[in-house]
Amino acid sequence: MKVLVVGSGGREHALCWKLAQSPLLKEMWCAPGNPGIAAVAQCVAIPAEDVEALVAFARAQAVDLVVVGPEVPLVAGLADRCRAEGIRVFGPSAAAAELEGSKGFMKDVAARAGIPTAWYQRFRDAEAAKTFIRAKGAPIVVKTDGLAAGKGVVVAMSEAEALAAVDAMMGDKVFGTAGDELVIEEYLDGEECSFFALCDGTIAVPLIAAQDHKRVGDGDTGPNTGGMGAYSPAPVVTPAIEAEIIAQCIHPLMTTMAELGRPYTGVLFAGIMVTKDGPKLLEYNVRFGDPECQVLMARLESDLLPVLLAAAEGRLDAAPLSWRDEVALVVVMAAAGYPGSYRKGGVIGGLDQAGAVEGVTVFHAGTQVRDGAVIATGGRVLGVTAIGADVTEARRRAYEAVDRIEWPDGFCRRDIAWRALNR
Fold this sequence. Notes:
alpha+beta, Rossmann fold, Dna Ligase, domain 1, D-amino Acid Aminotransferase, Chain A, domain 1, 4 domains, nine-stranded antiparallel sheet, five-stranded parallel sheet, 32% helix
């Protein structure tokens, strides 16, 4: 098969790395890709948001399957355009991708489906939002309705912090038009996890759970980021909790989306808070998580390509996928200043030495090659991923690899998987 993967981050590197292992693969491109992806696929200089150029390329190359990594092209209708051209595509329609494109829509769907989640209200007026916050008190959560690269969420522990978030999102437009509407919702106390399922419009095949680390600093301090590390399996997701998530958060969503005329195809990512009252939905995303995808691909034993194709063609069956028993763990190396204004252009050395650590793969997320050297161009730049017999071994290997990387502008959290180790 000929495959086109869309995107340029660590998630797409992990997908390309896994797809490259398939005996069914004939040729693979990635648009636009990155220097790490270039080792396993041909990189094509087409932006992930350029829907028409991507469709034209897929048609010209007789691509058998388009695999869409990020949410932005999905919300923009890339999957719809592919299907209109008769090109098989793994990813939801724009109508279904609104689950991530609009947090308000997602909450409305969850309410209709009876999915356990936080109470919420939608606002287009800043003063009304502030009045609601004062009435409810803190802690409380303030979210942009639209896409904000995983950073449009403020978990406000004080009323003043929540009011400031409204001003920043609605007044200062720190996330652009994503903040034209806000969702304000209940603060849920518990332990967060990420759960994934492959969907074909009718059937949802559960994958596995992972645990992400959203805050920028050790001890879960500082602002939210796109994710500073992850590991799988997540001990908080016991077999009983997993069964609850599937029954209460996955299957009802599939049924409701079909009823709405928006059948869901692709990967469904449910952000879950495991509370004392059981699992509750935080949000849905319409793509593999980043950095969760890196640990999922590291643990997946099954051939990924035929499963994605089956989802795209509406013929998934309920047969479970095969997973490695080992623990996978990824440490994200980010540029100094992230998630705020960050440094670009720093030269990164030691990547080969890091990749030589047993069980380690270094996934690129925000890199380019300039004058023969790998340089940092993004906020989250590398995903140092390790697999080990247990969480202690996986973590030791990952940090050993991190310490071999020569990048003065880089930093990482040093406590990835702290919850699992505390257990």
